[in-house]
Structure formats: C-alpha cells, structure tokens
Design a protein that fits this description.
With 231 residues, the protein is of the alpha/beta class. It contains 8 helices and 12 strands. The protein folds into 2 domains: 121 residues, Response regulator (Rossmann fold, 3-Layer(aba) Sandwich); 97 residues, Winged helix-like DNA-binding domain superfamily/Winged helix DNA-binding domain (Arc Repressor Mutant, subunit A, Orthogonal Bundle). Strand 8 and strand 9 form a beta hairpin. It is elongated, with a radius of gyration of 19 Å. The protein starts with 6 loop residues before the first strand and ends with a strand. It comes from Brumimicrobium glaciale.
Length: 231
C-alpha cells in the first residue's frame, strides 16, 4: 500500500469515533497510534517528529488540544489537523494561530477527513526544504532547528510558519508575491486567515533582518499587490 510507511498520531477521547477513524485510516494503509488523554499526549510530545500527521481533538481530558498543539509545534513541524465540535470561526482562527495546518468541524464526513489527511501529508512532504540554511542579510537561518544566528550568536528562534514564509520568499527571490498567493501556498485554499496576517509577519521580518526597518532593503512592499524579497 502507498501509505504503509506513513504514521499518524490520533488523539481523540471519544472512543467510538476514535475506533472508526483508526479503522478507516488503517484501511487506507496508514500506521495509526491512538491516545485518548491530553496528559498522555503531552508525555508523547518528544516523539511527535516521528509522525507524518497528528489528528487532534480540542476538548480532551486533563490537557486541551490547544495546549497540546502549542507543545507539539515547539518540538517539531509535523502537520496537525484539528477535529472538534468547537467549529466556530474563532475556534478555527485560534487553531491556525497556534500553528495547526487544518481544522475540521464535527460531525465530519469520513471521506473528507481522509482526503484532508492525504493533502496535508503530501503538502508537508513538498515543503521539506532540501537545503538546511538560508542566508537573509547578515543572518543565517537554520531550516531544521528554526534558529536565527548572526555569525555564531543565537538571535532568536522562529516559528514553523515564519520558516515556511522565509523559504517561500527565497524560492521566489526578486518576484512580486501577492498576499493571496502566499496564503494559498502556506495555508491552503480552505483555511485562509486574513491577508493582514502576512503583513504582520513582514513587519516582524523587517525588525529582525533589516538594518533599518523603516527603509527596508530586503522585504519590499508592492502597493496594492503584496511583497518582494531581494536578498
């Protein structure tokens, strides 16, 4: 089976739903590990990098899915798909801000879940950078550890989204990228945050990488369109 080498961590406390999802994932050829308790999931955090995807419920015993997502994303960039009865826009936005890659409200169609699983895994595979470092101005960005260094001094650590956005700009150096294009590449068509999200990332990049954030030489605003990176 094409998915036989793919491993999914399923964190869901509703046993009947967990059983159904686990069965269908296994029928698709995935290896599945199930956890039903938030505390146990946190204890499993050091292993999250071993998985190709995490399916995560929000409302769990002892520790919430929100906290688990934050913990997991601080350890590895494994994609996370939230599944939850809390399916309002504010819940989805909160999940995305915590670093989740997708959000599916309960009750959901199993076929849709399986399609989203496949898309997230393929998208994540496609984003894995071949190189390990980026040179941004006078700084070195480690794509594996997310660390930013100036010569040998550690300046800060970036989030997964920030790393992906920097990598996208470097891949398209000298090209004008619209906000919609960036959102589509990093979040997908069904999970847009607002375009203001990109503006906030650029402001952070300028403060970090530019000599003079008010007169940027790396991250340029193109009025009415988006941004251009010139390294």
């Amino acid at each position: 089976m094409p998915n036989s080498s793919k491993k999914i961590l399923l964190i869901e406390d509703e046993q009947s739903l967990s059983n159904v999802v686990e069965l269908n994932l296994k029928l698709e050829g995935f290896q599945v590990v199930c956890i039903s308790n938030g505390r146990t999931a946190i204890e499993h955090a050091h292993k999250v990098g071993e998985y190709d995807l995490v399916i995560l419920d929000v409302m769990l015993p002892e520790v919430s899915g929100w906290d688990i997502c934050s913990m997991f994303k601080s350890v590895a960039d494994t994609p996370i798909l939230f599944v939850s009865a809390k399916g309002t826009s504010s819940d989805k936005i909160k999940g995305l801000r915590l670093g989740a890659d997708d959000f599916l409200a309960k009750p959901f169609d199993l076929e849709e879940l399986l399609l989203r699983v496949q898309v997230l895994i393929l998208r994540h595979q496609g984003k894995k950078p071949k190189e390990q470092h980026l040179e941004i101005g006078d700084f070195n960005v480690n794509l594996l550890t997310f660390e930013v260094k100036n010569e040998e001094d550690l300046i800060t650590e970036l989030s997964k989204r920030e790393i992906e956005l920097l990598h996208l700009f470097v891949e398209h150096e000298g090209e004008v990228l619209s906000r919609d294009f960036i959102l589509d590449q990093l979040w997908g068509k069904d999970t847009y945050p607002t375009t203001r999200t990109i503006d906030n990332y650029i402001l952070s990049f300028r403060k970090l990488f530019e000599v003079d954030a008010k007169n940027p030489e790396l991250f340029h605003s193109i009025r009415g369109v988006g941004y251009k990176f010139t390294g």
